[in-house]
Automatic annotation (TrEMBL):
GO MF annotation terms: D-xylulokinase activity
Enzyme Commission number(s) of this protein: 2.7.1.17
InterPro entries: ATPase_NBD, Carb_kinase_FGGY, Carb_kinase_FGGY_CS, FGGY_C, FGGY_Carb_Kinase, FGGY_N, Xylulokinase
Coiled coil: none
Keywords: ATP-binding, Carbohydrate metabolism, Kinase, Nucleotide-binding, Transferase, Xylose metabolism
Ranges where the Carbohydrate kinase FGGY N-terminal domain occurs: 9-247
Classification via PANTHER family: SUGAR KINASE, XYLULOSE KINASE
Presence of keyword Transferase: yes
Assigned protein family: Belongs to the FGGY kinase family.
Gene that this sequence comes from: xylB
Protein name, as recorded: Xylulose kinase
Domain Carbohydrate kinase FGGY C-terminal: 258-428
Reaction catalysed by this enzyme: D-xylulose + ATP = D-xylulose 5-phosphate + ADP + H(+)
Amino acid sequence: MPHAAGPLVVGVDSSTQSATALVVDAGTGEVVARGRAPHRVSDGPGRESDPEQWWEALAAALRQCGPAARDAVAVSVAGQQHGLVTLDGRGAPVRPALLWNDVRSAPQRDRLLGRLGGAAAWAERVGSVPAPAFTVTKWAWLAEHEPEAARATTGVRLPHDFLTERLTGRATTDRGDVSGTGWWATATGSYDEEILGIAGLDRGLLPEVLEPGEPAGEVRSALPGLPLRPGALVAAGTGDNMAAALGLGLRPGRPVLSLGTSGTVYAVSQQRPADPTGAVNGFADARGDWLPLACTLNCTLAVDRVAALLGRDREAVEAGGSVVALPFLDGERTPDLPDASGLLTGLRHDTTAGQILQAAYDGAVHTLMTALERVLDADADPAGPLLLIGGGARGRAWRDTVLRLSGRPVLVPEAQDLVALGAAVQAAGLLSGEDPATVARRWRTDRGPQYDAVDRDEEAVERLTTALDRAKPLLAPR
Ligand SMILES: Nc1ncnc2c1ncn2[C@@H]1O[C@H](COP(=O)(O)OP(=O)(O)O)[C@@H](O)[C@H]1O
Ligand SMILES: O=C(CO)[C@@H](O)[C@H](O)COP(=O)(O)O
């Protein structure tokens, strides 16, 4: 282990596919140890994951960090947003968690929209028109399909709340992650009793919402198999996208594109978002500002699936041709087409497999680029670099596609695991009393190669826009 200049902190990313733990020198931002352990997500009609598995993966990732984890004096857990974790009186999951990318609650979402006066009323109140990703729609689905599970539930948590509570013994959440539930009003900064009433959820089942900079508690003693020091400070944690924003020390108006299981585009804003079209989710960030964000369900996994179907390496793309792929294998959230499936159009005799694969990348990136125009507020620099993060940022085909369809320069931070790093930033800020943005900028986490802008491929953008418009009746069967 290198000699550390400052105290050590731990940052955790409990994402859709895995848990990543980093032990970081709070003085310099140097990552002194890293561990990663996978999670399982169900396939079939829904997307579920056992929260006990997240806890085991967290412990396994920490064990991989070796003795450094036990030396850490502060810890923070960031997690995939929106997931519905239902707990019984002993703190055990009543059933597997319903994840953000489970679209079964689309009919419940439609009914909830009507009960509060429509999309615009939701946007004005909670900052977002809830997608079927939002926790409130999942609770409504559970109450309707598994009423006995809903009745057995005495605690409702988000993924990062669940893990943080296991560490501290205290039921807490933060303003960033809670802003993706649908039952926390960004207009008032509090739980919305009317929405809770409509959803049939008792306020007493929910955790306390911590203010930015407030601690969640301390690591409890007697956590067998967990190599963390009892008494280490535990920060509030937050949702994964909010954590990446912390990790980058993101300044308002700087756009981020994250390519992971989900594709997300976002920027910090100082104005509270409320987009009545539903394209932009008006989340709170973890520092007291806002994080307008658009999210797609089909990103790296969908493109990797197309590559596997074609029997090609994910980098084996070919330019040219007129094929268009709308890779909505999981249904889609942006655009709002929960019942959609994948669509291929424009095939010709001379279309190659590499062109079909390139079309899948184009389809995944195009929806994010269209959403980016709505995410950025009037103050944002329209020509500034896009920060490219997430597992896909390591792929050349992803990077080239983003350059070609955005027309912007692209900066790929050298720092990897920006969600876990953002959690570490939060833990370090809690320890020193600094603003997390100051910590991240001291750590210089946004350093990395910048790729020059190329002319936007207007022909491809036009083909995709037209195909999407024409295909909507086919993709929205309800
Ligand atoms: N070298 C690479 N090139 C392209 N894609 C990659 C590379 N390494 C990982 N990925 C993609 O990154 C994805 C995981 O990204 P990640 O941001 O860790 O996801 P999540 O946070 O949703 O669990 C995988 O699905 C894989 O397709
Ligand atoms: O639903 C959203 C954002 O609103 C997703 O971004 C989830 O937070 C999952 O993130 P990853 O596991 O793909 O990082």
